[in-house]
Amino acid sequence: MRVAFRRHNYCLIFIAALLFFFNSGGFRAFALSIEEERKMGEQFVAQASQAFRLVEDDFANSYINDLGQYLLRSLETKPFPFQFYIIQNNDLNAFAGPGGHIFFYTGLIEVMEEVDELAGVLSHEIAHVSARHLAERMEQSTMMQLATLAGILLGALVGGEGGGAIMTGSMAAVMQKQLAYSRNDERQADQLGFKFMAEAGFDPLGMIATLKKIQKGQMLATNQIPTYLLTHPGGSERIANYETMIYGDKPLIQEKGGTTKYRQYFPIFKTILRAKYMDPKEAERLFKRELGNDPESVWAHFGLGIVLREMREYQKAVDHFHKALKGQPRSILILRDMAEAYRLMGREEEAITLLSEALKMQPRDRSSLYLMALSYQNMEEYGKAIPIFEKLTHMKPVKNDVFYNLGVSYGRLNRLAPAHYNFGIYFIKLGKVGKALFHFQKAEDLSKNDPALQRRINKAKEGLT
Question: Cβ-count burial of 219 within 10 angstroms (0-12 exposed, 13-18 middle, 19+ buried)?
């Protein structure tokens, strides 16, 4: 209900923004500069985060961002610091927002069978950003804020509940005409994307496989065209262009060390997304079918363990994690997820034993550290939990809940000044300025003899009042 309400409000704002946009044609307009597009990108991400559920899994986000950065190595000039995100949605969709922010839907990743397919779409979107195709179509009115433009663009690109459902008639036609990439844009993006893939050691045939799957999804769609095709038209023509580049130029594509690594981890990446973000019953059915074909499949046991844990069948989950661990005894992922199952069962000591093993292999693994701190907190060993939470505050990106749990642990030890300070930071992260200022004031009143904490409080309050 909260998501539906949020999207309803978003759509109202979007309609108002569109009406303003189409009635402001008399004002002077100019193409976005790089700095303006960067700022607009920040607004775009903030609004996308409110409108959609972004995947928060550390491994999945690290995988897609590391792969994106790997593909970027052959890009000589980077106009923006690229960031890659995954949206939990079953549509076959992906799009490049302003400022180097590129989004993938879980539905599109689910139909991919090889990392080459993912690398193909990533490369294509990177090419659109590097050539600044979107910026050429987005003009900023002197009377419109970048945040308003970001909202218009978000609704136009993503379609569906987020925007496409309200874009009908002449309004949709105008926006689609303005934002749709031209054949020249697509040809350039395909050529650049082909270059990025080949130089990174991925097979460009992967992009053809993805385009065919998207086309099939379009033919099967009953309610709307997949929005990927609205901003990336001409699927058949683009397949032909790729085939010409592959079979005409006959590039020498040599697999590299990095390519092999991403190929090796791709099944794990897909397993995690399926287990954590697909409908649980559907994911359970798929993993069981995989185990029917291969009873020793490590990642099918691992995925099924995650699904059963989310369904609160903790002992069954642990049984599957144990089977997965037999095949991959040094897997930090399996150790960590099994520890989480033990923690949810209230068996904190067993969770800590597994997490200690994981941290021996990777001492700065944020997820393992966080779970260990939670275990100590649940055991009321706050003196052991606090140093770990404090360490996590210096490891980017920081989960908002790290600050909340620091506040809880300090409070349980009656150290109220740092408790209120961390609650203040937590509420800043949530955008609740009033509550943040309340806790900062409490922290300030309680920290008269702690100049260091006073300085941290004052720094945190800057710009809030």
Answer: exposed
The whole-angstrom separation of Cα 91 and Cα 114 is 19
Task: Give the DSSP letter of residue 102.
Answer: E
Does the pTM exceed 0.90? no
| Model pLDDT, residue 182 | 67
Closest to 154 (Cα-Cα) out of 22, 7, 26 = 7
Q: Which of 41-45, 70-74, 236-240 is predicted least confidently?
A: 236-240
Residue of 1, 96, 44, 173 whose CA lies nearest to 164:
173
Q: Are 128 and 181 within 8 A, CB to CB?
A: yes
Q: What is the DSSP letter of 415?
A: -
Position 149 pLDDT exceeds 90: no
> Is 54:86 a contact under the CB 8 Å cutoff?
yes
Residue 235 one-letter amino acid = G
The token pair at 135 is 């910026």
* Sequential DSSP letters for 357-380: HHHHH-TT-HHHHHHHHHHHHHTT
**Structural contact between residues 307 and 289, judged by C-beta atoms closer than 8 angstroms:** no
Please, which residues have CB within 8 angstroms of residue 149's CB and are 6 or more apart in sequence?
Answer: 21, 40, 43, 138, 140
Average pLDDT, the chain: 82
Residue-range domain boundaries for the chain? 2-249, 279-368, 380-465
Pick the CATH number of 279-368 from 3.40.50.300, 2.40.10.270, 1.25.40.10, 1.20.1560.10: 1.25.40.10
Is the confidence at residue 236, as pLDDT, over 80?
no
Strands, E assignment, 93-216: 94-96, 101-105, 139-141
Distance separating alpha carbons of residues 116 and 205, to the nearest angstrom: 8
Instruction: Supply the pLDDT for residue 300.
Output: 98
**Cα 51 from Cα 40, distance rounded (Å):** 16
Residue pair 179/156 in contact by the 8 Å Cβ criterion: yes
Q: Which residue has the higher pLDDT, 312 or 13?
A: 312
CA–CA dist 210, 207 (Å, integer): 5
